[in-house]
């Protein structure tokens, strides 16, 4: 663990990395604060830029966006009662009443401080546990990796949406998208229709930008209020908020632990973590704390939990190549773009980069606190940006980013097509995140399945002969059966408390 | 649960999913078979995994179809937004949406022949105007500023070669030492 950090320190101690982490954090706070964008969109928009940077600088910038974006949503939640991201939905329960009571500065300051401390806690757990997990997984063979990839594919689809079956379908769709192009094992052309632009496959950036950024632009227009300029108060935040936050140290510790735990479970998002942390904090609070009416503890609980989630989510992403959430899936895609293979090999062959990424994550949380407090007036003024200027700007950034990856207009066409696909799928309640997971984990699952079958003397029986793979697949099967069971059958098996 | 009015849309999307499944099998039966990559051992059988995935999609699609036949339509984003009606007339927003999609299409068509700078300035400016950004001079200035900022970041800092078009224009960032 320490050798990773020491070797990574050399990579992070460069002005470029430090500046990019600071910029990433600021950018993350901005996209987080703007309703409709969020950390995932921020990472997607700057993914092409990372492609041109050294690995630690690129990953550091993207991780800083992830960290900043996970906190930024609190600013609009507190001031406008509109969570900038779903992660901040629980923050408005007490943050907005605090703002109404004239304590907007305190609420934002506490949200930023709690996020930074929660994020730091998640980072420490990440540094402690990810190398251990990678050490265990280093002995895994193709059957175990196939089982893990299936778990990753399934868990996100199962948990991420109201419609699990549709989530699984879009996950499978992602796998098929990843199958387009030259098959690396047989060299056969799959689903290319003799079009040479498809021989190398469809670039993940084109798919992701199309699905998320372009479809989001359409939804933003449909929502209307294009020229509306929110009436936002000018807010001053001070570093004193740190002391206000630390008064709730047990709440902070408990909520950060909850956040890290939920983050490390693939598919269990920061939203679940923040609401769970809030519920527990409320249950533990004294009656005079007035949860729901502007309690500082409420903001501390939700914000520390959702940022601790970031560190937690990076544990399976880096150590096992199972993304903790959709943003981590894109971060995993970024690692692949930078020529690095997530999973135990990353720790074995690129330990210095892992160490650099760990340190960049911690640095991002330091910047989150400092820049968050100092630049709050800027973020507040950005909330006044009208959608009529925001939507074309996002579109331009998306398109130029897609073009920059391979200097290919074809990628732009793919992005446009996937923009339409994303729009239609969202309209009819098909979740998009599993597509990204499918694109990233599909080739891992396929490669390891075929390698397992080549190793096997008797087809699929190899999975029965490997206890770890068998256990993981059995759990996957049970989860899937449970999910597919009709509700009334589930109700009979697990009677409700009221019953 | 009551039936949503866009039930046809749900069926069409599900039909498209089955269409993808059919396409996978068509490709396995034609292109992959012609390449002798549709059977054999795991090394040469490029159809093995896509076939399983397509079958899974078909199975899941049948479940969704069953749910819809029982009248269980999810409350999609379109249904949710109908309840949360924006102040502008919906038809006008729809027109703006189509115009933005059209301008995006024009951007893709113009980018290589006309070049990044002119295309971006014109198309993004038009997008601002379509979305009612007024006064006009502010929309034009914002478009110019955005074009220059994007060019500076991508061409100047990241050294990306953007399409120069018939004008052959490239900003002289080397004069700034970049």
TrEMBL record, chain A:
Pfam families reported for this sequence: TctA
Key words, A-Z: Membrane, Transmembrane, Transmembrane helix
Domain DUF112: 18-437
Protein source organism: Tropicimonas sediminicola
Protein name in UniProt: Putative tricarboxylic transport membrane protein
Membrane-spanning segments: 6-31, 108-133, 145-161, 168-186, 198-219, 313-338, 358-383, 395-424, 430-447, 468-485
InterPro entries registered for this protein in UniProt: DUF112_TM (IPR002823)
PANTHER family tied to this protein: TRICARBOXYLIC TRANSPORT PROTEIN
The organism's taxonomic lineage, starting at the top: Bacteria, Pseudomonadati, Pseudomonadota, Alphaproteobacteria, Rhodobacterales
Automatic annotation (TrEMBL), chain B:
Sequence ranges assigned to domain DUF1468 in this UniProt record: 16-163
Superkingdom classification of source: Bacteria
Keyword Transmembrane helix listed: yes
Alphabetically ordered keywords of this record: Membrane, Transmembrane, Transmembrane helix
Pfam families, A to Z: TctB (PF07331)
Residue intervals passing through the bilayer: 7-29, 49-69, 98-131, 137-158
Protein name: Tripartite tricarboxylate transporter TctB family protein
